TrEMBL record:
The chain crosses the membrane at residues 12-33. Keywords: Fimbrium, Membrane, Methylation, Transmembrane, Transmembrane helix. SUPFAM superfamilies: Pili subunits (SSF54523). InterPro entries: N_methyl_site (IPR012902), Pilin (IPR001082), Pilin-like (IPR045584). It comes from the Bacteria. This is Prepilin-type N-terminal cleavage/methylation domain-containing protein. Belongs to the N-Me-Phe pilin family. PROSITE patterns: PROKAR_NTER_METHYL. It comes from Undibacterium amnicola.
Length: 146
């Protein structure tokens, strides 16, 4: 009668293969994770511009900030425009120009490096505002975070 030997446990080679696979996956996943967390932090800067966008759109529709058919005379904290938000871990500042251009600036920590997010309004017929947001250093950052 032939005796059969029952294998118990893994061989050293099998364990080394598993460790190598885990190392390769970690080498690929960690840089991607860092990029995702940086984008998530910068999304707070983008969200901080929301109140300003609403204020510009409201004053354009009511006509309270129009001069000669263009947006003009806007000041943070006056009329429909909110006051500048308090700086926090990710948002250094949000500012608005008198023509409605909104600039959000990130802090210089937690993977952020003072990147800016700029929104430029264009007034269309009927008092509607369209926004152009393809400028700012967040678009040229490596990797792009907005």
């Amino acid at each position: 009668m032939k005796s059969t030997r029952i294998q118990q446990g893994f061989t050293l080679i099998e364990l080394m293969i598993v460790v190598a696979i885990i190392g390769i996956l970690a080498a690929v996943a960690l840089p991607a994770y860092k990029q995702y967390t940086t984008k998530a932090r910068f999304s707070e800067v983008i969200a901080a511009t929301g109140g300003f966008k609403t204020g510009v759109e409201t004053c354009a529709q009511t006509g309270s900030c129009l001069t000669a058919g263009a947006i003009a005379g806007l000041v943070a904290g006056a009329g429909d425009i909110p006051a500048a938000p308090v700086a926090n871990n990710h948002v250094a500042s949000v500012a608005i120009s008198d023509t409605g251009t909104i600039t959000g600036t990130a802090t210089n920590n937690n993977g952020l490096g003072n990147q800016t997010y700029i929104l430029v309004p264009t007034l269309t017929a009927g008092g509607q505002v369209t926004w152009t947001s393809n400028t700012g250093s967040c678009f040229t950052a490596t990797p792009k975070i907005c």
